């Protein structure tokens, strides 16, 4: 029984290591994607004018409901906004 439990523990530790490796790969991929999106967003004009290209880039979807209620789903998260504000502070 002790050997069986030791084998199970070893299998669980190996599975845990694989999951941690996959998680690290996902986090790296996410960081790379955030950097790419941040670099693309910097290409937009600095003026207060909003152009169609900017809207298409930043807005994923707009849902319109009865009662004049709308819901805007953005393509980016708060992390991208932090990245953009950090890069603006560096310039």
Question: Which properties best describe this structure?
Answer:
91 residues, alpha+beta, two-stranded antiparallel sheet, 3 helices, 67% helix, 14% strand
Describe it for me?
This protein is of the alpha+beta class and 91 residues long. Helix content is 67%, strand content 14%. The chain contains three helices and two strands. The protein has helices spanning 2-42, 52-58, 78-90; strands at 59-65, 69-74. Strands 1-2 form a two-stranded antiparallel ribbon. Strand 1 and strand 2 (69-74) form a beta hairpin. The longest helix has 41 residues, at 2-42. It is elongated, with a radius of gyration of 22 Å. The termini are far apart. The mean pLDDT is 76.
* H/E series: HHEEH
Largest sheet: 2 strands, antiparallel
Q: Terminal Cα separation, in Å? A: 64 Å
Number of helices: 3
How many whole angstroms does the radius of gyration measure?
22 Å
Describe the global form.
elongated
Mean pLDDT: 76
Structural class: alpha+beta
**Proportion of strand residues:** 5-15%
């Amino acid at each position: 029984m002790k050997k069986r439990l030791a084998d199970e523990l070893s299998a669980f530790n190996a599975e845990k290591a694989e999951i941690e490796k996959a998680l690290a790969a996902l986090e790296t991929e996410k960081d790379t994607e955030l950097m790419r999106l941040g670099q693309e967003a910097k290409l937009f004009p600095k003026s207060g004018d909003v152009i169609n290209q900017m809207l298409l880039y930043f807005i994923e979807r707009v849902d319109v409901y009865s009662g004049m209620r709308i819901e805007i789903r953005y393509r980016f998260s708060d992390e991208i906004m932090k990245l953009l504000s950090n890069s603006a502070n560096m310039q």
